Structures are given as structure tokens and as C-alpha cells.
Amino acid sequence: ITMPTTLVRGAKSFFVNDEDAEQFAREAPGFQRTIVVEDSGHAVQSDQPLRLIEIQLGSAFGDAGTTRFPD
Fold it and tell me: How far apart are CA 19 and CA 27, in angstroms?
């Protein structure tokens, strides 16, 4: 993967762990960052859907996933 890439993973994921993220960072030329979503397992899109949208908006508009919806 050579285009800019952000890895989004759930903190409680049993499928993608810190070692996997580190390997991806080493091997993917376009790697930019990893964002770990608290209170989420492997399926961030169903465990924390609003947080994933915030991250996507942040990536698209350049604030690295810091956009937050009000609680």
C-alpha cells in the first residue's frame, strides 16, 4: 500500500494487536499512523460507529481524527 494509510483498530481486538500494527507500519510505504479506538473490539464500525466517522472525517479534512461529535 503506497498511498497514505491510517490503521484504525479497536483496543480490545483479538485479531489486530500492537505487533500487527507495528508490522504494518514497517512494511506499508504509505503508512502514516495508527488510531486505537477505546471500548471497541475488532469491528470498530459496529462497536463505535460515531468514533469511526469522526476518524474518517478527520482523515479526509486533515485533523488526524480529532473531530468529535457531542455526547
Answer: 12
Residues 69 and 54: beta-carbon distance below 8 Å:
yes
Report the alpha-carbon distance of residue 19 to residue 38 in Å, rounded.
17
**pTM listed for this prediction:** 0.80
Return the number of other C-beta atoms located less than 10 Å from residue 57's C-beta: 15
* 31-57: pLDDT as tens digits: 999 999 999 999 999 999 999 999 998
CA distances from 57 to 46, 52, 54, 63 (A): 17, 9, 5, 8
